Amino acid sequence: MNKINWSVRFKNPLFLSQLFMAFFVPILGYFGLTAQDMTTWKSVGDLVVDAVSNPYVVSLIVVSVYNAITNPMSKGFGDSDEDLNK
Question: Is 74 left (phi over 0), alpha (psi -120 to 50) or beta?
Fold first, then answer.
């Protein structure tokens, strides 16, 4: 993971939204909820605790985040040389 230009990625709002969605969409899908069901911070917190205590949901999140991080325009897991030199 040292071949990823994290500073460039974290400045990109699209990447941040992909990470957010990669974390929360599998949780909401597994528990059969929608974003409209999350009306209090307590319900969000309880949902996250329930999710991270379930190994299957954690594996869904890991795969989803991995898919959000990979760069389909470069070979392998890291960024291209052009992206690394930005």
Answer: beta
Q: CA 41, 47, 52: angle at the middle one, nearest 5?
A: 125
- DSSP letter (8 states) at residue 40: S
The reply to whether the predicted model has a pTM over 0.85 is no
For every residue of 42-83, DSSP letters joined together read HHHHHHHHHHHT-HHHHHHHHHHHHHHH--TTSSSSS--HHH
pLDDT surpassing 80 at residue 32: yes
Q: Residue 4 carries which side chain, given as an amino acid letter? A: I
How far is the C-alpha of 25 from the C-alpha of 22, rounded, in Å?
6
